[in-house]
């Protein structure tokens, strides 16, 4: 099983937000199963590549990979338009596997690819039964502006989380990383405002604009204060803070 406990929030939050915003549908059950088992297959495959094919990792890859493949085939059979998403996920998957082979799974570019793959799921959940060929970004999510608003807000949050956690653990004391984290969090507030102001079919409710911006402002304050005041906070404390922030953002997106 994956040891990166923080990754579970990235797996669950975009999926939950996307399903609620799109309106729950039976095919979402297959989507959730394919996504979660696919993640297990991806993690096992990464370990296999990192270990240069060591035998102990082959069985997890075979089991998770086989089940994930069956689930994906069933999912695309139920909703063929999901196949269009291969254009987005193939390069992201490639980045992850190459990072594992190079033993650089903690690199910034791999983190960005992982976050992007997770956040896009909020849009994947909106995929309609039919789209024009080739579909544009709006057609691919049934014309829902709200789907892309959710993807943008989730990406702002999770990419910021990656930077913040690095300042607390692996890059503790690195001034360049701290500065980058602060810049990202400060800029996230106006960018979130722009995203929330977008108008169109299925847009997020304007009533969540103020509390969402307040949340991003609090996250910026946290990124500035916590690494300086509590640089040796335990991973448990950091994790609890992320759970609270993830839950708050999920609640805002769900009521939107």
From TrEMBL:
<protein>
    <submittedName>
        <fullName>YwiC-like family protein</fullName>
    </submittedName>
</protein>
<feature type="transmembrane region" description="Helical">
    <location>
        <begin position="237"/>
        <end position="255"/>
    </location>
</feature>
<feature type="transmembrane region" description="Helical">
    <location>
        <begin position="177"/>
        <end position="198"/>
    </location>
</feature>
<feature type="transmembrane region" description="Helical">
    <location>
        <begin position="84"/>
        <end position="101"/>
    </location>
</feature>
<keyword id="KW-0472">Membrane</keyword>
<keyword id="KW-0812">Transmembrane</keyword>
<keyword id="KW-1133">Transmembrane helix</keyword>
<feature type="transmembrane region" description="Helical">
    <location>
        <begin position="108"/>
        <end position="126"/>
    </location>
</feature>
<feature type="transmembrane region" description="Helical">
    <location>
        <begin position="146"/>
        <end position="165"/>
    </location>
</feature>
<feature type="transmembrane region" description="Helical">
    <location>
        <begin position="204"/>
        <end position="225"/>
    </location>
</feature>
<feature type="transmembrane region" description="Helical">
    <location>
        <begin position="61"/>
        <end position="78"/>
    </location>
</feature>
<dbReference type="InterPro" id="IPR025576">
    <property type="entry name" value="YwiC"/>
</dbReference>
<feature type="transmembrane region" description="Helical">
    <location>
        <begin position="32"/>
        <end position="49"/>
    </location>
</feature>
<dbReference type="Pfam" id="PF14256">
    <property type="entry name" value="YwiC"/>
</dbReference>
């Amino acid at each position: 099983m994956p040891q990166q406990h923080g990754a579970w929030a990235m797996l669950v939050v975009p999926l939950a937000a996307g399903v609620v915003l799109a309106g729950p549908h039976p095919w979402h059950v297959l989507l959730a199963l394919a996504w979660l088992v696919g993640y297990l297959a991806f993690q096992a495959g990464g370990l296999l590549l990192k270990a240069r094919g060591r035998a102990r990792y082959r069985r997890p890859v075979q089991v998770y990979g086989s089940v994930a493949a069956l689930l994906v085939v069933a999912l695309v059979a139920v909703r063929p338009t999901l196949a269009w998403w291969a254009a987005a996920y193939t390069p992201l998957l490639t980045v992850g596997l190459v990072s594992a082979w190079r033993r650089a799974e903690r690199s910034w570019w791999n983190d960005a690819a992982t976050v992007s793959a997770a956040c896009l799921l909020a849009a994947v959940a909106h995929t309609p039964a039919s789209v024009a060929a080739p579909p544009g970004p709006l057609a691919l999510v049934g014309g829902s502006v709200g789907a892309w608003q959710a993807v943008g807000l989730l990406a702002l949050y999770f990419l910021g989380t990656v930077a913040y956690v690095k300042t607390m653990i692996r890059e503790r004391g690195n001034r360049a990383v701290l500065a980058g984290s602060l810049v990202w969090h400060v800029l996230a507030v106006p960018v979130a405002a722009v995203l929330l102001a977008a108008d169109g079919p299925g847009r997020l409710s304007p009533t969540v604009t103020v509390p969402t911006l307040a949340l991003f402002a609090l996250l910026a304050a946290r990124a500035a204060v916590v690494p300086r005041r509590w640089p040796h906070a335990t991973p448990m404390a950091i994790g609890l803070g992320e759970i609270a922030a993830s839950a708050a953002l999920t609640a805002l997106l769900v009521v939107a």
